[in-house]
Amino acid sequence: MRKWGVALALAATVPVSACVQTRQYADLQFTPPQGDYKLLVLRPDVSVGSLTTGGIVEPRADWTEQARSNIIAALQTQQSGRGGKIQILERRSQLQGASEQEVADFERLFYAVGESIVIHKYLGEYLPTKRRQGLDWTLGEDAVSLGRKTGYDYALFLHAEDSVASGGRIALGVLGLAGCFVGFCAPNIGGATQLDYAGLVDLKTGEVVWFNVVRAGSEIPGIAFGDLRTPQGAAQMVERLLGRMKPGNAVRQAAEKKS
Amino acid sequence: MCARCFELSRRSLLVGSGATAAALSTGIADARILPKDMVPLVGPGYRPTEKDEQGIWQLMDRAEEEIAGSNLLMTDPKLTAYLKDLIGKVGGPAAGDFRIYLAHIPDFNAMMFPTGFAVVFSGLLLRMRNEAQLAGVIAHESGHFLRRHMIRSWRDQRRKTDIFAIAAMAAGVGGAAGGVYLGDYVQLAQLGTILSLFQYSREMEAEADAMGARLIADAGYEPVEMSNIWQQLIGEETASARYRRKRRRRGSLFDTHPSEGARMADLKADALEVKDPGRKYEVGRERYLATIGGIRPLLLDDQVKLNDPGASQYLIETLAQDGWNGLLRYYEGEVWRLRNRHGDDARAALSYASAVSYPDAPADAWRWHGISLMKAGRNAEAKSAFARYLTLKPDATDAAWVRQMIG
Questions:
Q1: pLDDT at A39 over 60
Q2: pLDDT tens-digit readout, B30-87
Q3: Within its chain, how far is the Cα of B124 from the centroid?
């Protein structure tokens, strides 16, 4: 499954220190949607797990559900502040004007294209022909026809995965810290990590106009940064991921010239 | 940051004591698991109650949604109903809960997911010679679910990685306090733990085999057919390797499944144990062929295009043990033609000539028979073969070209 591939590839590059990193790309001509626009949010792909003592992530159904509803609520609040009309799909069958299969195909296409964006924009396999081109990917005609059928201007995809250090993992970190006193210092065994990414598709042109990745990780178990299981944590995540949507380079340069 | 933390994090995963024991117990020769010990661990309508299993089920529900809507699935209602019916017969207490999907992938495989849905690859339907064999594979997969293998192996993995992490840390801290370096032991322990993870997996495969033999015998299928599947697979792999001038891969400590040879032998012994004297066991060949007959040309076509002439030839010959026919002869010809080594065109020509002598020869057999004849200078015969091709397939994409050949 493609989207797990994206997640794994990104998770592997979580930096060594405890920090939060975001990096966004936009189409050269991109202007963040404002005013009267209609936004469709595809079913947010959320998973929250517990980081076991041994360092593997155990998925947790109840935490995932909790995080998903927190994220949806935070999205609603955030987007209504921008003036757009928003619908968040919880199931593929909820979209009026498109069949469940069309929605599924659209999602899969996005995750395939998203994987390519991640490889060529985030993981170092830069394409010489795409230098200084901003974000130059498209979902093509299918996205345009979906927009025509359903009447939406933009589609937003969102992936969030979070792991919470278990009691055992924290205890192990404490033991590693205690070891510092005898000369075996290993507090940084790796604690909670969070990986979120989102992509915005313009349904008038089919182009992926904006893409952002947030990576957060702490090497030391027990240090948390925005727990998706809490409404505050989810709101913080949505703000980090979508709050500071920057316009594309061409648009920015034009604005600078004017002023 | 100190240099030694890095040492630990690189080695960090798994446990000290018992490493040697684990390494020793991972020999290929595991004891056979007896079918009579294989009692289903779940009843009808099973739902998980523990947090870890619920988490996995939630993930798997998403996975099933993806798979169920995948465009790789074959949705022929006759075939899907057939598979559903089979898993209903050999699914034990969970028979009514299983879902089964057929994926268009020309490979020998089937898998069971933790929530009770199975995916069967179309390549499996090509390789199975009768219903009992197919039921055997499905029963093996049901066995994984009935014996709760996924959650058991997940817990096993979690326990072992936990113990290793603690012991590795303890070895580091304890060793530093005592002034000794235990890094080498930590590495040995890591290998031991990894090896024992694979062993747990092989033991579960053996359990699923034993459980499967029991399930199909209960459903009235000849259990020894499960053993025959492995015999066929060994033959196929050997033939495939021989064509590539390589040897068949041998088992290693890192195998997740027991070797095919061991499975074949164990299943043979299982078959004797699970049968009731006096009861009749069927193989269901006619019913099987009647059901999958319609897609056999597609399955054979997928196979010959894999560019694995050794395996393809072996498979065709195995299927032909139940009698040659026009379809099998035609694809035998295709294997040679596509391999295209010196003399293969003559071999292919013989196969096409043989294919058209059967009433079920596909239209394309006549086409290639015609081309072979034309190459050999036998133009009159070639023309009548082409004419036959056009009668069988009047709207063929190359009809105009063939008509021109006839002149």
A1: yes
A2: 678 888 888 899 889 999 988 888 988 888 888 888 888 888 899 999 999 999 999 9
A3: 6
The DSSP bridge pattern shows strands A38-41 and B99-103 to be unpaired
**A148: number of Cβ within 10 Å:** 12
| B2/A53 touch (CB, cutoff 8 Å), yes or no | no
- Partners of B177 on chain A (C-beta within 8 Å) are 182-184
- B9:A104 CB<8 A: no
Query: Could you tell me the pLDDT band of residue B118, with boundaries at 50, 70 and 90?
Result: very high
Question: Using the beta-carbon criterion (under 8 Å), do B55 and A60 form an inter-chain contact?
Answer: yes
Residues of A in contact with B2 (CB under 8 A): 185
Q: What is the residue type of A16?
A: V
Strand partners, B282: B221
Q: Measure the CA–CA gap between A145 and A106, rounded to whole angstroms.
A: 11
Helix axis angle for B224-243 and B309-320, nearest 10°, is 140
The alpha-carbon gap from A185 to the nearest alpha carbon of chain B, in Å, equals 6
Please report, for residues A70, A74, B151, B402, the alpha-carbon distance to residue A232 in angstroms, rounded to integers and kept in the order given.
Answer: 8, 9, 33, 73
Q: Is residue A15's pLDDT more than 50?
A: no
Whether chain A has a CB inside 8 Å of the CB on B111: the answer is no
In whole angstroms, what separates CA B3 from the centre of its chain? 47
Residue closest to A75 by CA, chosen among A247, A237, A229: A237
User: How many Cβ contacts (< 8 angstroms) between chains A and B?
Assistant: 101
Contact (CB<8Å) B55/A188? no
Q: Touching check for B164 and chain A: CB below 8 Å? A: yes
B95, B141 Cβ separation under 8 angstroms: no
Spatial contact of B120 and B102, defined as CB atoms under 8 Å apart: yes
Chain B residues in contact with A175 (beta carbon < 8 A): 166, 169-170, 173
Instruction: Look at residues A232, A224, A254 and name the one whose alpha carbon lies nearest to residue A20.
Output: A224
A189 touches chain B (CB under 8 A): yes
Place of tokens 């459903």: B219
Is residue B60 less than 8 Å (CB to CB) from chain A?
A: no
Quote the DSSP letter at residue A118: I
- Chain B residue numbers with beta carbons less than 8 Å from the beta carbon of A60 are 51, 54-55
Distance separating alpha carbons of residues B4 and B206, to the nearest angstrom: 42
For tokens 């523990």, name the residue. B50
CB distance B285 to B130 below 8 Å:
yes
The Cβ of residue A146 has, within 10 Å, a number of other Cβ atoms equal to 23
Which residues lie across from A48 on neighbouring strands?
A: A162
Residue B375 forms contact with A (CB below 8 Å): no
Q: In whole angstroms, what is the distance from residue B84 CA to residue B100 CA? A: 6
